[in-house]
Each structure stands twice: as C-alpha cells, then as structure tokens.
Amino acid sequence: MSGAGVHADEEKQAFLSLPGVPDHAATVVEQRNSKLWSYGRLALEVIMAAAIVLFLVRSPSTRKFREDMSSPVPTFPRKSSFFISNQTFLNEHMFASNKQTRLTLHNWLPISSDARGYISLPNHTEYDDLVEPLEVRLDRYHNGPGYMVSVFHQLHCLSYLVEKFQVGYSGENLTREVAHHSAHCFDYLRQSIMCAGDTTLEGKTEAGPGWGTPHECVDYDALLDWANKNAASKWRGPMPDELAIL
Description:
Blueprint: H1 3-16, H2 23-58, H3 60-70, E1 78-82, H4 98-105, E2 118-120, E3 134-137, E4 143-148, H5 150-169, H6 176-196, E5 214-218, H7 220-229
Antiparallel strand pairs: 1-5, 2-4, 3-4
Helix pairs in contact: 4-5, 5-6
Family: Belongs to the ustYa family.
Protein name: Oxidase
Keywords: Membrane, Oxidoreductase, Transmembrane, Transmembrane helix
C-alpha cells in the first residue's frame, strides 16, 4: 500500500472513532448531540412562530380589523379644512334679541343629524367596548337600543350656551336649571377639546387670530352621512320650524 493510501485510511479511522473512547461511549455522545439538535430546532421553530404571530398582531391590516370589531363607528377619511369666520352660524348682531339668536342658531340644524345625533344600534352586544345603550325612539310606536354620537352632543351644548348667553346678555336672571346645564356643557366641551387635541400650528394671517390656517379634519360630510343612515327617529322639536335649534 502506498504512503498516500495509508494516510487516507488513518484520517478515515480518526473520524470513525474517538481515540481512547469505547464504541458504546461514542454512541452515547452521538445520541446526546442528536437530542441537543432536536431541542435547538424545536426552540428555533417556536421563536419563529412567535415572531410571525407578533408580526400579524402588529400589522396595520390586523390592527384595523381589531379596531373595526371594537366599534360600530367606521374610520372616516380626513381632509384639510381652513378655519374661517362664517357669519351664517355666528355673528355679533345675532344677540340683539332672543328671536334673532334662535334664527341664527336655526342654521345649525343641517350640520347635525336628522335624529339630533342619536343612532339606532340593535346589535350593540357584538361590541365589548360599548357602555350600556340608551333607549331611543325608533319611530312613533317603537323604542330600541341606541347611542348619542359625541360630536352632535358637543354641537348641542355649544348651541345651548350661545342661546343662554343671549338670555343673560339681555339682563334676565340665571335660573338654577340653566346654571346646572351650562356647567355641564362647559365642562363637556372642555373635555371634548382636550380629547381631540388639535395640534395645528397657528400663525399670523390676514384673516385674524385663529382664522386662515388649514387643519386636518374628519370628513364631516362622510360622518354626517353615516349618522343619518343609522339615525333613530327623526327629531321633532316643540318650537316653530324657524325657531327650532339643536
């Protein structure tokens, strides 16, 4: 046998057995290594599975699905809107009389829903995050579960405060009921403003303080359309049509 052949046989023998270690001991080592490899592979698969689950939970599509399931209110589109003075809704001349105030506030009716913010929600039990529903009028003969949409509650409160401001401006005494309702509305609007947290940066404009700056806003037309499609019974107020307010 040539020297090269002898050398190759020696190398092969070195891999086949451990010097000074019996064959059964080598088998034990191999089995131990096999178990370690199996455990390592299992741990790796568990880690990969956990990573996939975490990715799915944190993905935008999954978050949107979970948000959709937690509330019956859809996510409305947003658009840029300039804040400008609109004297159709408020102006300094409207406080000359209570009638003039109410005629101006009457212009707010189209920006509230047909049911003044109340929606019908018969499947409210499907949403765990909702509080207990109100009992709202569905038609002339039936009531059912429903809710008030906050933005329309806010509009009602602001309209109420404007009307009562004129009453005080005209010199009438403030009643206890008006004081109680006004305090509620002031604090409700305070918390609503803080909740929305509009961080638009306002600067110097020709339109005056606070005006002429674009804000990123909810598409109010889309919101109003949704509220009307899910509205409870259409509101019928006690006042003549031209003096009806929110």
